Amino acid sequence: MEKTILFPKAGGFIHGGDYNPEQWLDRPDILKEDIRMMKKAGINCATLGVFSWSFYEPKEGEYHFDWLQHIMDDMYENGIYTILATPSGARPAWLDATYPEAMRVNRQGVRNHHGLRHNHCMSSPAFRRKTAEIDRRLAERFGSHPGLLLYHISNELGGECYCPLCVQRFRQYLDDTFDHDIEKLNHAWWTAFWSHRYDSFDQIEPPFADGEGSIMGLNLEWKRFTTWNMTDFLKSEIRVLKEITPDIPVTTNFMTLYNGLDYRKMAKELDIISWDSYPKFHNDEETLFDTMADNAFHHTIMRSMKKDKPFMLMESAPGLVNWHPCNKVKRPGVHKLACLQAAACGSDTVQYFQWRKGRGSFEQYHGAVVDHLGTDDTRIFRETAQVGELLKKIAPAAGTRVKARTALLFDWDNRWAIQDAKALSQQTKAYEETCMAIWKEFLKLGVEMDILPSDADFTDYDLLIAPMLYLLQPQTASCLKAFVQRGGQLVATYFTGYVDKDQLCYLGGFPGDGLSDLFGIISEEIDTLYPSDSNKIRFTPEYASMEWQVKDYAEILRVRDAEILAAYTSDFYQGTPAVTRKQYGKGKAYYIAARTAPAQMRPLFTQMLTDAGITPQNLPEGVEYHTRTGEEGNYAFYLNYAPTPTQIENIYGTDLLTDTPLNGSLTLEAHGTAVIRLPQQ
Amino acid sequence: MEKTILFPKAGGFIHGGDYNPEQWLDRPDILKEDIRMMKKAGINCATLGVFSWSFYEPKEGEYHFDWLQHIMDDMYENGIYTILATPSGARPAWLDATYPEAMRVNRQGVRNHHGLRHNHCMSSPAFRRKTAEIDRRLAERFGSHPGLLLYHISNELGGECYCPLCVQRFRQYLDDTFDHDIEKLNHAWWTAFWSHRYDSFDQIEPPFADGEGSIMGLNLEWKRFTTWNMTDFLKSEIRVLKEITPDIPVTTNFMTLYNGLDYRKMAKELDIISWDSYPKFHNDEETLFDTMADNAFHHTIMRSMKKDKPFMLMESAPGLVNWHPCNKVKRPGVHKLACLQAAACGSDTVQYFQWRKGRGSFEQYHGAVVDHLGTDDTRIFRETAQVGELLKKIAPAAGTRVKARTALLFDWDNRWAIQDAKALSQQTKAYEETCMAIWKEFLKLGVEMDILPSDADFTDYDLLIAPMLYLLQPQTASCLKAFVQRGGQLVATYFTGYVDKDQLCYLGGFPGDGLSDLFGIISEEIDTLYPSDSNKIRFTPEYASMEWQVKDYAEILRVRDAEILAAYTSDFYQGTPAVTRKQYGKGKAYYIAARTAPAQMRPLFTQMLTDAGITPQNLPEGVEYHTRTGEEGNYAFYLNYAPTPTQIENIYGTDLLTDTPLNGSLTLEAHGTAVIRLPQQ
Amino acid sequence: MEKTILFPKAGGFIHGGDYNPEQWLDRPDILKEDIRMMKKAGINCATLGVFSWSFYEPKEGEYHFDWLQHIMDDMYENGIYTILATPSGARPAWLDATYPEAMRVNRQGVRNHHGLRHNHCMSSPAFRRKTAEIDRRLAERFGSHPGLLLYHISNELGGECYCPLCVQRFRQYLDDTFDHDIEKLNHAWWTAFWSHRYDSFDQIEPPFADGEGSIMGLNLEWKRFTTWNMTDFLKSEIRVLKEITPDIPVTTNFMTLYNGLDYRKMAKELDIISWDSYPKFHNDEETLFDTMADNAFHHTIMRSMKKDKPFMLMESAPGLVNWHPCNKVKRPGVHKLACLQAAACGSDTVQYFQWRKGRGSFEQYHGAVVDHLGTDDTRIFRETAQVGELLKKIAPAAGTRVKARTALLFDWDNRWAIQDAKALSQQTKAYEETCMAIWKEFLKLGVEMDILPSDADFTDYDLLIAPMLYLLQPQTASCLKAFVQRGGQLVATYFTGYVDKDQLCYLGGFPGDGLSDLFGIISEEIDTLYPSDSNKIRFTPEYASMEWQVKDYAEILRVRDAEILAAYTSDFYQGTPAVTRKQYGKGKAYYIAARTAPAQMRPLFTQMLTDAGITPQNLPEGVEYHTRTGEEGNYAFYLNYAPTPTQIENIYGTDLLTDTPLNGSLTLEAHGTAVIRLPQQ
C-alpha cells in the first residue's frame, strides 16, 4: 500500500491546534511568547481565523488582513505552518443587524437573536454572498502563502433552520426528490393515514414544534434535506476557494456521530476528513479502556469515510474541557495515550483546541496548551511537549494506513428511522450503543473493523455485522446476498428489514426485500421487554457452553430453511428459535433474534472469524492494538489503558518510541505505549 | 329487567374494528382478502371513514363517495355491518390552508401548524360549516344503507383552544354563567385577592401560559367552558345527522378518564356510550389483575353514564400498541380475557383499532388483526378468531345489563378542583388513584359498584363511597343527608367539603354545607406527610384486630356528636379521632380522616355491606366476577387473571363457553374464563 | 451600644401581619371580630393595602379611600398600628388593558398577559406615573394618620423584563457603565472570542432565550442592570412618599437569598430592612436545627445590611404554607421557637402572612392566624396568642442589637459569576450551600458571624471567611491584605480570585490581583471530582488527629512562601499541599484548596478563633444561641430545637420568659426557649 503524506511540505505528523491571536493583538509580548513556546512544544502548525470575521471586516466592506499576514509570516519563519479557516462559523454583529435573514429560525418558528455560534441560515442568499466575499478575499490574499497547508471550512457545522427560505427550498427539494409527483410523495409517506394527503408540494411544512410530527417520511426527508442544504452551503464555500487556489485541500471538522447531519454525504465534498475528539476521560460510568474504545469507534468511522489517505484529529483538549457535566483533569500520561491512539487509528495529525486560554467568554476555561498562568512549566505544557517529541519519533509511520477485512454497518438514515419509529420502547432503542458495543468486541479481539454505510461496496470484506438494519436502502438486500453468495460471513439481528427507504413497511414478512430468503426466517412478532423482564438463549450442543442473557427485545421467528443454533428458554415463546444460520452460496448468514450482551457473543464471533480466515490477537485486558500498513513498512501500535503493567508475547521489531529492538516480548507499563516497526515479511 | 339489544339487525354481540380501506384502494387483492379474513375471524361490523375526509373531498367542493359505497356494499353482502364515522377528527391540508382559523391556538397563544389530529378550533365557524357540509353529504348518501348501524362522531375528541374566537366565546359563556353581573364573578372568584378584580367580562382571558393562572375559579370555569364548547361542537355535528337520519344512533369514542373533558356532560348528547381501552398489559408495576381492575373501573364509569342499555368497547388492540412506553406483546389467552371482561362489565361490542396495519406513518406498528405479513395464520389472528367464536356462544347475554346497589362518587369538577388546589402536596393528591383503589376492593369482594357524579340520583343505592369529595355541588350535601336519613351507608374521607362549586372555602368548619352535622365532626387541620413520615390508626375493641397504616394525609378532628371508632397512634395528634361513625336517621355516616390502604379497610367495608344487606362473593385471588341480568336470564362471568388454575364453589347453571352444566363447582384454568347462564330463580 | 427602637410610639416588639379587610367589606361582622381577636392575640400592628389598588381605584381616576380610613381608625382606636403598603405589587385589570406596556416581556421576548403578581415592567413610564399617582394620594390621605408606622413599598419585588423599553435602558446603562466606549466593553467582555465584537451599544441585546448567552460579561451586566432598574423603580416610589411625609420610614420585603436582585444595592435606599421567612419545617432531609440554622443565616444577612438598628420579620406563616412541595403543619411549640429566633437574631418584629385566610384564589390555604373556621379556639390561634405574650415579656430587649467580630463574605456578583462560569461541574458548584454550611459551624460554636459583601468595611472584624471568592471586586484584594496585615485571621478556599469584576481571568496565576502574595500560593489546576471520586487531606503533626474528606473540587497548588499544613493523600497529586497558612503582617492567611465537610474543619476554626481572641460557647447539640446587646443590658437567647431536654451551665441572670433568676444552670425542655437578661458587667 502506497503511503499518502497529507502535507508533504510539513512532512510526517502535524502537531498543532486552534490559535486565536486576534484576542491578544494589544499584547505583542504574548504573541512573541506564543512563538517561542510553540517551538518548545514541538508545534509545527496552527489553525487560524476560525472566529476572526469581525477582525477581518469590523464594518461591512472595510477589510483588515495585515494582522493575520504578520502572524502567518512570523509562524512560517519559525517553522510553523498554517491551517486557515473560513470565518463563517460566527458572524459579526453588524452582519445580523443588516441581514436579519442570516439568523436561523428554530423549530418553534421563532427567529433567533444575534449571538452564539451555530446560528446561520444555510439558505440565506445574503449570508452566502457575504461568506463568498470574505472567503474570496482570504484566498486571494493568503492562498499562495508558503505556510498555508489547508482550508478549514467554517466550524463544526450543525443545526437546522425553519425560516421561510428554508421551507421554500425544502418544498423544491421534495418536488425534485419525488419527480414532481405529489401522489408519489403521498404514497411514500403513507399520507392516507389520518387523512394527511397533500394536494401540492406547497402545502408541505417542515416538522415544526406545533406542527406535523406524525409523518415518518416527512421527518426523515427533513433530516435528509438538512444534510443536503448544509452540504450545499459547504460546497458554496469550497467553490470560491477552489476557483482561486485549486491545489489547497479543504476539510471541515466533524463531531463524532453528530445526529443532525449525515457526514458521509458531506465527506464526498472534502479532500480530507477531520474531526474533534473530546472523550469524557475518567468518568465514573466506565473504564478508561471503554471510554477510549468509543473514541476508537469514532476515529474508525472517520477513517472509513476516505480509506485512501490518513485523516486528521482537528481538535482535542490538552487538559480538560469546560462543557462536560463534570470537567475532571486528564491524569498524567493519558494525553500521550489519546494522541497515540489517534495515530494508531490512522490520523496523521494531533491538534488541539486551543493553544492558549482566552481571558473571558464561553470557553475561558476550556483546556489549552498555555494556561492563564502563561508559563511553560505546567504539567499540561510538559505533557504536550512530550507528545511533540513522540510524533517526531514515529514519523516513519506517517502516510501509512489501517486496513480491515471486516466491517460493521452503521447508517444515519437507519439511525433516524429507528429514532423516529413509533414502536419498541423509546428508552431502549439504543442503536448507536448496540453498534458500538458489538464493534468493541472486535477491538478487544485485535481485529480491525471498518464502519460503513449500508450502501457501501463490500468487495474488500470477508465478514459483515449489520446490527438492527431496520431501514433497507434500495440495493442493500441484494448486495448483502451477493456478499454471502461469494463466501462472506454476515450477521443480522432483531429489527432488520422492516422498512424501505421511505419507511414503508415491507409486506409479506420481515426481514423484507428478499432478506427472509437470505436468512431463511420470518420474524412474526417482536416482544419489548420491561427492564425487570428477562429471558435467555440456550444453544444446541454444537455450542454447548453458551447461554446468552436476553434484554430489551426478542423476536419470535418462523424458520423456513435455516439451521437453528439456539432457542429461548422461557416465556410463551420458550423453545422457539433465537439464533439461526443459513448456508447461502459459499457464505453463511446468521440471524440473532434478540438483544444480548456482546461479550457473551464472542465465541460466535470467533468462529465466524475463523470461517473468514482471520486470526484474532491475544491481547491482555485493557490493551488496544492497531497496525498501520505501508509499502515501506508496517507499524503496530499498543496502548495500555490499564493502571497496571502488562506483557505481550511474540512481538518482534523495533519500538520507535524507545528505539529498542524487541525479541518476542513487549512489556507495557501502566498507561504505557509502544509503536513497533514490524520486520518486513 | 328488559333486554336492550343495541343493533337488532346485527343481533347479539358486535365484533369489529376500525377499517381503513382508503389506504389500499390501489390494491383490490388486499381489499378482497380483507373480506375473506373478516369472515374467518367472525367479524360482523367494521368502522369506516374515521380519517377519510381527504378521500371524500380531495379538493374543496369536489366529492368522491363511490369508493366507500363499494366497500360498504361488499361488506354488507358478506354479512359485515358498518359504523360510519364523521371525518372531523383530522382535516385535509387544503382546509387548513384555506381556513387557518380551523387550526387551534395553544396555551402559549401560538396557532398550531397543520398536522397531527386533535387540532381543530371548536369555535371556528368555517370549520363547523365545512364539517356540517361533509356530514350532511355522508348522511344523505349512506344514511339509508342497509348495512349502517351507527354514526361515530369525530374521533377521541379532546384538547382546548385559546384562539380569539374561543376567548370571545369564553367571555360570553361567563357573562351568561354569572348572570351578566361582573361583581357576582368577582365574588365567586375571590378576585379581591391580589387585586384581581375585573371591571367587565371583556377583561377576562383564559389561563394563558404567560397569563393569569392564580385564580382557581377562572381555571375551573375554563375547564367547564372547554367541555361546554366541545359539547357544542359535538351537538353541531349530531344536529345535521339527526335532521336527515333521525333513527341512526350516534356515539363518540371516549378515552378512559381523559382529564380535559367532563364526559358526563357530553354523554347526555349521545345515544350510546363507547370508549377506547388500551391497558398496559404485563407491565412491571402491578399484577395482571390490577391492570384489568383499572380497566374494569373504566368500563364501569362508561356503563354508569347510561344505565338503561349496554355500552360499546369501540377500540382495543388485538396485539400490542405502539405508543406505550414499553410495547410488550399480549400473552396468549389474555386477548380473550380482555374481550370477555368488556362483555362482563356490560359492553355489547368488542371492537379493535385496527383491522390491518398500514404500511407507514404514526401507527404503522399499532396492533391489528392483520399484520404486515398479511396472512391468517398468525397467533394474533387466531386469537381474534377465537374471540369471534366466543362472542357467538355468549350471544344470549347480549342486551342484558349489570345492576349495582352500591356506588362510588367520582367527579370531573372535583378532580379539577383538587388538581388545582394550592394545598397538600402536589405529588400525592392522587384523587383518581384513591377512588380506583377503593373501588377495586369492592371488585375483589365481587360486589358491583357503579361510578357516579356527586349530583346523581342516589335512589337506587344502599351504600355510597365518596372519597375526597373536596368540592360540593349545590345539592350534594342535602342529597347525601337524605340518602343516609333513609337508611344508606355512607363513607367520606379527609379533604371533604372544603369548597363550594366556585371553590370558595366554606366558613364555619369543614366539611361544609351542613356535612359536619351529618358526620358529627369538624376537621380543624390537615397534615401533609412527607414520604418518610408514618402514622397509624388503631381501632376500639369493637374492631379489635384492625390497625391501619396512614400515609400522605391526616386530618385532625373535633368530634361533635359522632362515635369514635379509631384514633391516631402517634405524633402530636396521638389519641385524637381518626375514624368516626354517626347514626343519622336510619343510616350511618362514616368519616375516615386519613389516607390508608384500601386493603386494610376491607373489614369495615364488609360490615357496611352487611348493614346494607349485600352479600359479598367469596372469590379466589386474581378472579374478577360480574353478573349481567335480563328478563330471560342472568349470566355470571368469571375471569381468572392468575397464572394458575383455581376453583369456585356453589355455582350452578350452564357454562356457555363450553356448553357444560355446572353442579356446584367451577374450575378455571390459568387465564381461564367462564360465562354461566344461572338457573332461573 | 445605644438602643434603637424602630417605632417608639408602638414601643417594644411589633406583633402583626398582613391584613386584607378589602376581602370582607361585605361582612362587617367579620371585620369587627378581627379587631376583637387581634387584641386577644396580642397583635399591635397590621399591614394594610398590599394588594388593594383595585379597591382604591376601581376605574382609572376614580378613587375610594374611605374604607381604608375606617379600618385604620378602628384599629388605632383599639391599639393596633398600621404599616401601609403601596399597591404596586399587583395591578388592576384596567391598568394593563389601558397601558399594555406595564406588562413584562419574558426571556422569550413574549409580553405577558395580565395576571399573577410580579408582572410589571420596571421601566414603563406609564406604570411609574400611575404608581406615583396612587402613592401620592395614599401619602396625602394617610401620611399623618396617628396609627401609621411605616411604608411598605410594593411587595416581594423580583423578576426581570425584556421589553423594548428595558432593552433601551440596558443599552443606556452600558453606555454609561463603559464610559461611552464600545471598545472598553469589547475588552471587558472579551468579545474577540467567537467574533462577538460590537460596533455600537445599539447592537447589544439582553440574553434572550434564543439569543446571546455565551458572553459572561453580558450575562452579569444584565443581572446588575436588573438590580439597578428595580432599585430605580423602588426609588421612584420612595421619592413620592418622602416628598409628602419625609418622617415615615420605608421598607420593602426581601425574600431570603433571592437570586435575581442584589439586595445590598436596594438596601441603601431603605430606612429599615425587612424580609419574609418561610422555612420548610419538619422536612425529611434535615433536622429541625439545620432548617432553623439556614433561617438564622437569612436573618443574619438581613441584619448585616443595616447594622445600626434592628430589622423586621415582615412575613412568616402562623401555621403552614400552601406552596411548599409538602405542606406539613408546624408542630406545637415550633411557632414560638421560630418567633423567638427572629428576635434572637436582631429582629424587632414578628409579623405574619396572613391574619385571616381568604375564601378563594391562590393563597386560600396559606397559613393564617384565623382559619376558615373563624374562631379563636384553634391550636394555631392559641400558639399565636402565646407569642404575643412572650413578646411583651422580652420587651426590654427591643432596640438592642447583635454584635459580631467575625464575618463571612457572601456576594451576589460572585454568586452570579460562579453560577454562570463554564467550568467545574454545573451540578456541584453549590456556592450558597458552601457558605451556609461553613457559617453554620460558627453558629454551633455560639460565635456570632455577620454576612458581608466583599467590598465591605472589615474594620470591626477579627476573623473573615471568604469561601469560593471567585470574582474579585476592584478593592477586595487590597482590603483583605490590609485586614490580615493589621492582625486579622482570614480563610480563603479553592476557586478564589480567578476573575475580575468583568469576569476576565487574571493572568499570571490564581488567586489573582495580588492574592497569591497574600496566601503564598498559586493554584495550577482545579480538579472536578465525580460523585464517586474521593480523596483526603492529611495534616502535619501539629494537627495530628485531623483528616478531612475531599469531595467535588481539589486544586493543585504551587507553594511559594506559605506554611504547608496538610497534603492530599491520594491520586496523582498525592502529597501535594492542600491547606496552607501564611503569616502576613500581624495576621494569618489560610488557603484551603479543596472542598471538605465544614464539621471536620471545626478544630481549625477553633484555633483561628483563639488566635483572634474569641471564645466559643459550649452548646449542647441542637441549641442555637445569640446575645442582643444594649446600653441598658444584654440579653442571651437560647433555643432548643432538639426533641429532648438539655442543660446549659454557667449561666447567670434572669429568664424573662419565666421571670426566674438563674444561678448557673439553665434547663431547656424539648423545643424549650429562654431569654436571659444577663448581669451587668
Give a short overview.
Chains A, B, C: Keywords: Glycosidase, Hydrolase, Metal-binding, Zinc. Chain A is α/β, with parallel strands linked by helices and 681 residues long. Chain A is built from 17 helices and 26 strands.
Helix coverage percent of residues of chain A? Answer: 25-40%
Low-confidence stretches of chain A: none
Considering residues with a beta carbon less than 8 A from a beta carbon on another chain, report the largest interface and each chain's count: A-C, 56 and 55 residues
How would you sum up the major sheet of chain A? 11 strands, mixed
Shape of chain A: globular
The CATH class designation of the domain at 406-612 in chain A is Alpha Beta
Give the strand tally of chain A. 26
CATH topology title of the domain at 406-612 in chain A: Rossmann fold
Structural class, from helix and strand content of chain A?
A: alpha/beta
The first-to-last residue Cα distance of chain A is 14 Å
Can you tell me the CATH architecture of the domain at 406-612 in chain A? 3-Layer(aba) Sandwich
CATH superfamily placement of the domain at 406-612 in chain A: Class I glutamine amidotransferase (GATase) domain
Quaternary organization = homotrimer
Q: How big a fraction of the residues of chain A is strand?
A: 15-25%
- Rg of chain A is 26 Å
User: If you average the pLDDT of chain A, what whole number results?
Assistant: 97
- With helices defined by DSSP (H or I, 4 residues minimum), what is the helix count of chain A? 17
